[in-house]
Amino acid sequence: MTFQKKPSPGTSRSHVALTLDRRGFLRVGATLGAGFLLPDLTGCSSVDDDNPQPVENGELFTPASVRSRDGLLDIELTITETEVTVGQYTFMTRAYTGLKVNHGESSLGDTTYTGTVPGPSIELRPGDKLKLKLINDLPDDGSAVDPEDCAMGSGSGGHGGGGHGAGTHNNTTNLHTHGLHVDPGPPGDDVFLVIGPGESYDFVFDIPRDIDMPDGTKANHPAGTYWYHPHMHGSTAIQVAGGMVGAIIIRDEERDDLDKLFATEPGPGQGKEQLLVVGEYMIQTKDSCDGKTRLATYGEMGHSGPLPAGVDDFFHINGQLNPILRMRPSEVQRLRVLHTGFRAPLDIAFLRVPDDQVDSTTALPKPGYDPFGYSCASSNGPPMLNRDELRAKSATYYQVATDGVTYGAPLKMPMANAVSEIEYVIPPGGRVDMLVQFEAGTYQMVALGYLDFVCWAPQVLATVVVSGKPDTSLQIPQVLTPPALYPSFDDMSKPGNAITNKRQVEFSVTQDADGAHFLIDGRTFCESRVDQCIVLDAVEEWTIINKFTDTAGESIHPFHIHVNSFLVTSINGKTPAQPIWRDTCLIPTSGTNADGTLTFLSRFLHFQGQYVLHCHILEHEDEGMMQLVEVQEAACPAPPTDDTCET
Predict the structure, then answer these.
(1) Which of 154, 156, 296, 348 has the fewest Cβ atoms within 10 angstroms?
(2) CB within 8 A of 149, min separation 6: which ones?
(3) At residue 44, does pLDDT exceed 80?
């Protein structure tokens, strides 16, 4: 093969079934039928969705997980079309539906893996090797499941609303390990790979252990919460939006305080951890061509202003709408909150439901109870969200890590001294580990909504029922140990802290007769043009500019860079209340006609090669809001000045 460089159980019905043999290996069972490809390949569900009804809460579903054994995890993941039910919606999507474990451990036991959204969680430790064969069993690109001529929207992105949108290869894919500090070259985290329908690729990822740091010490890969997803330029949004995502958990009980204190199956003296993979669906609730439910097209994803009638944008957790989490009073739990959405930021609060609004039989909120008191759309003017009052009423919780990097001490939330919402809003692609400890009662974990060129409505994410005998065996820790890979910049004279270069990168959106253009430094992505050349072991200060333009105004852009995390030092010229390492961060707007700015420090250690930085509103990335980064040992050439792009 040649490659170019370039729900809860029972609700997801895959067309591939797998079973465990006597050795514990998963085997493919051929259950493909003549109906595998839907008539005319429209991607529309066969379920009648004329009158969808809300679905009652279910207990939180935990995705299947696979773990390394003796330093190795060897698995195969298969991608197919599959029918998925989330809440009241049933539709076709692309998903990781096949799993085979060649070496390692699985949570499935003798259970058949039928393919769910999200995909299986991958658990590794520093020093492990992950071998992952990715098998693309999607139909050919000419039969992509989102129809070209039936889009209801005509948004600014997606070339006029056609189903194929920014990419003409919606069923061609690859795989990115978001947030991992690993080799970006083949056969590792190479996002320029092109894996077409009917093809496969054997990835190999080595998770660093005892690697050299500039001050002469050794470091492990940070224990924390990461994820995997497709990164096929031009088709990333349509694939991630469809649920092609899964968690990567790096564990290090030897060095990480949180891993010592919490586990999925707690031992003596440990608290429980729960994985919340927050996904974002944008779907056609009633397609204009045949009345069936399907994923939105690029035109609908790129729609400016309120979404068209019949298009819904909503969050789910582990493939469920508003699942139930259970705790005991005073119990401390660790929630790994992983935002795999393709577009909308998350602004989280925990709101207690008044006792008179709780059903005494179920301990759930009574039907019709609304915790918000406001809506996203306003009939008499621009959309308004009065979030501050509810945020102030949130039950206290504690953030302990962002993007896989543990803090030195828990951060009490909601933040009382934030200089910007950038500090507490979770961008698409971002992750937050939080510790929660509540009194008896019923709480709703909510997303408070967000305003930008599209207004994202507030939504209940999950219901937390706190009942039973109090559990006081564990308290919120007061001190934590940050990972050695990301030491502070408190003393700039220390080895590895002196700044060797500064640069500016400008994100902008312009509008003309041809539509919207998503640009970095005035240009769209070109695979043959290195935009940012960096010398290995450099320590750099970057200022990311969110450009206000006369034609398009201002909008948010989550900045993400592969391989190396960064420490935010300034938000619109102000020092953040909390020093936080990130790999994905919202670039602020100014709130006026001026530019917004984000400044950070980063060390470019250990890995040479090419990778990318981009906007993690993924249709923006697909439309060209991405740059090629190259880290090399030798001195870098002068940056290119022309707009030519060799394809």
Answers:
(1) 154
(2) 162, 163, 289
(3) no
